Amino acid sequence: MQPFFRNTFLPVDSNGKPDLSFFAADCFHFSVRGYAEMAMALWNNMLEPVGEKQTYNNFTHDRLKLKCPNPEKPFLSTLRNSGFRNSDLSLSRTEPAVPYWAVIVAAVAGVLVGSLFVFLVSRRRAKRRQHKTDTEKNTKMTSL
After folding, report:
1. Alpha-carbon distance 110 to 50, whole Å?
2. Contact 78, 51 (CB under 8 A)
3. Does an H or E element contain 103, and which?
4. Residue 89 — very low, low, confident or very high, per pLDDT cuts 50/70/90?
5. How far is CA 21 from each of CA 1, 29, 31, 58, 65, rounded to the nearest angstrom?
6. Model confidence over 29-46: pLDDT tens digits?
7. Radius of gyration (Cα) for the chain, nearest Å?
8. Sign, Cα dihedral of 78, 43, 28, 10
9. Which positions ≥6 away from 75 have C-beta within 8 Å?
């Protein structure tokens, strides 16, 4: 949902080669510096309104590029508060999508099915142990 990584290029050093200080020793995962850059880009992206979000990451390692909420919009931007989708939706309590009784029935059914499974598995193990014990007794009796 946050497009800050969509058009990102590898950061380069002064020689035009990839700047490996943004990556861990395996050259695949980010280093502490790389994670800090990603965190700043994600934070900035969350403050930008939907439709105006930055789709790239500027690997400058500059703390001043970190955005702060402004007094007009002191919150994280979402589809609703950015003016997308139905902005006239009321935030009042609405009817849940799943009726409460369906949750109860599903929970009870889950407990019953789980109990039946545990019973069948334990019964099968008991039969195996009994069969093994009987086989050992028969072996001892026949060897006498």
Report:
1. 41
2. no
3. helix 100-143
4. very low
5. 27, 11, 7, 15, 19
6. 989 988 888 888 888 888
7. 31
8. positive
9. 69, 81
d(CA 101, CA 98): 8
Lookup: tokens for 140: 């001892």
Average pLDDT, the chain: 82
Q: What angle do CA 47, 53, 54 make, to 5 degrees?
A: 110
Tokens at 19, concatenated: 């700047």
Which single residue is written with the structure tokens 């919009």? 73
* Residue recorded with tokens 């861990």: 24
The residue ranking higher by pLDDT, 92 or 20, is 20
Q: Are 46 and 79 in contact (CB under 8 A)?
A: no
Rounded to 5°, angle at Cα 102 from 97 and 108: 145
Tell me the percentage of the chain whose pLDDT exceeds 70. Answer: 87
Count the residues in the chain.
144
